[in-house]
Design brief:
The complex is a heterodimer of chains A (270) and B (340). With 270 residues, chain A is α/β, with parallel strands linked by helices. Chain A has helices at 45-52, 75-79, 97-102, 117-129, 145-158, 175-192, 203-209, 227-230, 233-240, 262-267, and strands at 7-16, 19-28, 34-39, 60-65, 68-69, 82-85, 163-167, 195-199, 212-217, 220-225, 244-248, 255-259. Chain B has one domain (77-336): ABC transporter involved in vitamin B12 uptake, BtuC, CATH 1.10.3470. Chain B has 14 helices and no strands. Chain B is globular. In chain B, 49% of the residues are buried. Classes of the chains: A alpha/beta (270), B mainly alpha (340). The interface between A and B is large, with 46 and 34 residues.
């Protein structure tokens, strides 16, 4: 099932109304890797993700999947290749978890026919991967924030796409849930070789989990590379305009950023 | 089969429960239809009715085949039409207030119909067609007016309620201006009434109900994806605009054709979906269940209005009485949640 999908943004610009947010971005999504898009608020990270997932049409440029421009392809074919966990998800009240996850099978379903055994297998696998099998018969509003987020990731997994985008999958979750979800995603990338692209706000978590980082500012892609290449005091200053100290994480050896505040300087620590 | 029992069993169980609830609703509907055919000014036994229907007996044939049968069939068909259309609107706009009889779509059809009857003296067939187009036009206008930079369901509902008030005023004005002898015909359009249904108008309604219901059932997976929001629907590969337009078009057709024959029977579109959802749960699409609930409400309302009260009331009066308290309840509930 796993194919070598090439997903490329080619001189991509997009925005809302007259306002251009994404400006002439060209990038190639690294195959079977975990990529993280970093950038300050309003730098165009979410816009980039939305444009990749057809939620926003490019004003200029193209998104190419395996050499074909997205608008020329069938929506269901794209939906079998590219998935997205949006920033916020609203479930219809009262729906059971199993049925909600089964919605992810839409691109595979035929007119009128019930769920097939492949559908059930995919739903089961997705729910097992997110460790929510026990919650199958519960209603969505009974669940905690972390459980709900896992249900929605399971929905995206049931879609069985080779490329999965996630827009801030850890926002609103406490640190334990953040680590749990990122570990599950790492596992998914490792076992199923799913290409993962996500927007994260936490630089240190990005550095810990990413294979590759795209740094964005004001709608431009300003730098890309491995965490070691990107997470440097200079680049962090370029992206966020803050001074920082970068040291190797004692456990993973990945770069670890300590922001420097004006109070630190006053105490003479820097 | 490599299926995990718990997930498979859970989904299957809820599916079976849904199907058995549908069967139960169908049984109740049949029983109610029998009541409507047998009881009235003159009572017949079920055997007599069967004999008349199979043509082996002539006793009471006029009453049964000319009056009660068309009336019962019209009640069932219009109930299905209103119930399904209401549920589609409520589901697509994700708000129980968004039923076509609250946001002006039904009233838009009614305005056109009343105008054609009172001032142009057109026949029923043409009136139905014109009211369909009026309904579609009104639905489109409400959509356009409420669409500024992006689609907002809440704005659409508010615009629709405004349109509704405007159309009601128009209808009142037309009835005041109309020739006196036309007013009884036009009054049908104020409440919804099953009196004087003629058999020839039913085949068209039947075809419209079958056609629209089939289209809606074919699109139900897409509709279920749309309940997660437009973003999810696009990600899942639903052609959102086409699916939504088709669903709205089918619903407006159902509403307009049913309205042209029975008048706007109040509250059916508004109540059927929520009742069906309450009975069957939110995990199902609830298209057939709201159809059956709609038919039950109209048939039951008509039975009560005709037989159980001191005077005969049109069905719309009875169902309207059901709708008002529910509307107030919804408004209070929604206010608690901070929504419109």
């Amino acid at each position: 099932m796993q194919q070598n999908h090439h997903l490329i943004a080619d001189h991509l610009s997009a925005g809302y109304g007259e306002k251009t947010i994404l400006n002439d971005v060209t990038l190639h999504i690294p195959h079977q890797k975990i990529s993280v898009i970093l950038g300050s608020n309003g730098s165009g990270k979410s816009t980039l993700l939305k444009t990749f997932c057809r939620l926003l049409s490019p004003t200029e440029g193209n998104i190419m999947l395996d050499g074909k421009s997205l608008p020329t392809m069938k929506s269901k074919d794209i939906a079998r290749t590219i998935g997205l966990l949006p920033q916020s998800s609203v479930a219809p009240e009262g729906i059971k978890v199993a049925e909600l996850v089964s919605r992810g099978r839409f691109p595979y379903r035929k007119f009128m026919s019930p769920l097939t055994s492949e559908d059930y297998a995919a739903i089961e696998e997705a729910m097992a991967a997110m460790e929510i099998t026990d919650l199958a018969d519960r209603s969505i509003e009974e669940l905690s924030g972390g459980q709900r987020q896992r249900v929605f990731i399971a929905l995206a997994l049931a879609q069985q796409t080779d490329i999965l985008f996630l827009d801030e999958p850890t926002t609103y979750l406490d640190i334990a849930y953040q680590i749990e979800i990122l570990d599950l995603l790492k596992e998914l990338n490792h076992c199923k070789h799913t290409t993962i692209v996500m927007v994260l706000h936490d630089i240190n978590l990005s550095s810990k989990y990413a294979d590759y980082i795209f740094a964005m500012k004001n709608g431009h892609l300003i730098k890309e590379g491995t965490p070691e290449e990107i997470i440097t005091a200079d680049t962090i200053h370029d992206i966020y305009g803050i001074n920082s100290l970068v040291i190797p994480d004692p456990l993973s050896k990945s770069p670890f950023v300590i922001p420097i505040s004006s109070h630190d300087a006053a105490k003479g620590i820097s | 089969m490599t299926t995990e029992p718990s997930i498979f069993i859970g989904i299957q169980k809820r599916r079976r429960q849904y199907v058995s609830t549908l069967c139960l609703l169908l049984l109740v509907l049949c029983a109610l239809a029998c009541l409507n055919l047998t009881i009235g000014e003159k009572n017949y036994s079920i055997y007599q009715v069967l004999h008349v229907l199979t043509g082996t007996s002539q006793e009471g044939a006029y009453l049964i085949t000319r009056l009660r049968l068309p009336r019962t069939l019209a009640a069932i068909l219009s109930g299905i039409a209103f119930g399904v259309a209401g549920n589609i609107f409520q589901t697509l706009l994700r708000n129980p207030l968004a039923s076509p009889d609250i946001i002006g779509v039904s009233t838009g059809s009614t305005v056109a119909a009343v105008y054609c009857i009172l001032f142009l003296n057109l026949s029923r067939g043409i009136v139905s067609v014109i009211s369909v187009f009026a309904g579609i036009l009104v639905a489109f206008c409400i959509y356009r007016i409420s669409y500024t930079d992006r689609f907002s369901a809440n704005r659409l509902i508010l615009v629709g309620i405004g349109m509704q008030a405007f159309f009601n005023a128009l209808i009142n004005w037309m009835i005041l201006k109309a020739a006196e002898y036309d007013v009884p015909t036009a009054m049908r359009w104020m409440t919804g009434n099953l009196n004087g249904i003629v058999t020839d108008s039913l085949p068209l309604l039947f075809l419209v109900v079958i056609f629209s219901l089939t289209c809606i059932l074919l699109l139900r997976h897409g509709m279920q994806s749309l309940t997660l929001g437009d973003e999810y629907a696009i990600i899942l590969g639903v052609r959102v605009r086409i699916v939504r337009a088709a669903l709205i078009l089918c619903s407006v057709m159902l509403i307009a054709f049913a309205t042209a024959i029975t008048g706007p029977i109040s509250s059916i579109a508004f109540l059927s979906g929520p009742i069906a959802t309450k009975i069957c749960g939110k995990s199902q699409a609830n298209i057939l269940s709201s159809a059956l609930v709609g038919a039950l409400l109209v048939l039951g309302g008509d039975f009560i209005g005709q037989n159980l009260l001191f005077t005969r009331y049109p069905v719309g009066v009875i169902t309207g009485l059901l709708g008002a308290p529910y509307l107030i309840y919804l408004l209070i509930q929604n206010q608690k949640g901070g929504r419109i």
